[in-house]
Each structure stands twice: as structure tokens, then as C-alpha cells.
Design a protein that fits this description.
Layout (H helix, E strand, L loop, with lengths): L1 H19 L3 E3 L2 H17 L1 H7 L1 H6 L4 H16 L3 E3 L2 H22 L6
Antiparallel strand pairs: 1-2
């Protein structure tokens, strides 16, 4: 249940950012839900491989290159999903950064109180 709620919150974040950023377009709420699902699958399946392949540059840049890996994943989602469009890598980088911040805020609302 919590995973489904996280998926919906990610879709809400995608819709908010698509309305905010002129370089990102989502045509419907269903597409935003598909984008959230595909991004979570890409982060689960593809991101570990990309991190291992780019480990030297990630170490040299002290982890900053991970932002570019996230942007690449967003561009991959753009390629696979009709109705979702990101105009450049720079918009994907900004979208990735803001999506991470929004997801952190939304997911913090889901955390249960550890004291109880």
C-alpha cells in the first residue's frame, strides 16, 4: 500500500514540475503515473549498472555525476513514454533535481513516527 502511495505522490510531483518547467511536458495524469512507474523501474534496474560503469568519474566528481545519471534516466523515460517530453539534458537535469527534492518532501509525510 505504501509503495502505491509513493507512486501516486511521484506522479503528483511529475505533474507539478511539468506545469512549472517550460522544458518538460506531460499530456495527462495517467501519463504522469506511467512516468513515475517507469522512472522507478529504471532507477531499480538500470541505475545500478550505470553507477558501476561510471564509478571512476563519480568518484572524481565526488558524486555530482549521479545527477547526470538521473537526468539520463529521465531522458530514457522520455524516449519510451509517448506524451512525456523533456526538451534537453539541462531540463532533464533540473527536472531530476527538483523531482528528488519534491519526492523527499512527499515521502517524509509518509514516514510513521518511530516513537509509537
Amino acid at each position: 500500500m505504501k509503495t502505491l502511495l509513493r507512486l501516486v505522490l511521484s506522479a503528483v510531483a511529475v505533474v507539478l514540475l511539468a506545469k512549472l518547467l517550460p522544458g518538460v511536458f506531460v499530456d495527462s495524469y495517467v501519463t504522469a503515473l506511467v512516468v513515475a512507474l517507469v522512472l522507478s523501474l529504471l532507477k531499480f534496474l538500470v541505475k545500478p549498472v550505470l553507477i558501476i560503469l561510471t564509478l571512476p568519474i563519480t568518484i572524481i566528481t565526488l558524486g555530482i555525476f549521479l545527477l547526470f545519471i538521473n537526468a539520463i534516466l529521465i531522458l530514457m523515460a522520455d524516449y519510451f513514454i509517448p506524451g512525456f517530453e523533456v526538451s534537453s539534458i539541462w531540463w532533464a537535469l533540473l527536472f531530476s533535481f527538483l523531482l528528488s527534492i519534491l519526492q523527499s518532501i512527499f515521502y517524509s509525510l509518509l514516514k510513521e513516527d518511530k516513537k509509537s
